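Consider one such protein record:
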Amino acid sequence: MQIPAKIEQVVTPILKRHGCDLVLGTFRRERAGWVLRLLIERHGADPNSGSGVDHRLCMSISREVGTTLEVEETIAQSYTLEVSSPGIERPLVRPEDFKRFTGRRVSAKVRQSINGQRRFKGTLGGITDGEILLDLGEGKTVNIPVETIEKANLVYDPRADLAATGD
């Protein structure tokens, strides 16, 4: 479950002050209880170079978010707050993510099958009219409506990383 708007309204200004963006926020009940999970990155960070998020920044944001949520009594039940980097295989959540990472390897899972498939992996060709284009290789492509995507993320490709550094 995505975070409720009232939580996002508290979190967003705090992240902006720290030069960060919310990649993905979830608030859900897990075995140990309710968990508010915030995946954050520095503005414009490239996952291959790192998110620009270190332990100290996560702790600082966690303290500020936790205190503000408590003072404003935003969440009624007890919960655990987790603030972390999205990692090298960063989730793609918003249409802007698909535009920003055009040309990168992507994995996507859709709710309803397309041509008999629900999972795709390929090179992101961009987003047009609410659909992403994935180049699956060998001359095959697929258009995937964004609203049908259940989960999408970058795929780490060490060969691309080596090519970028010239090694």
Notes: The domain at 95-165 is CATH 2.30.30.180 (SH3 type barrels.).
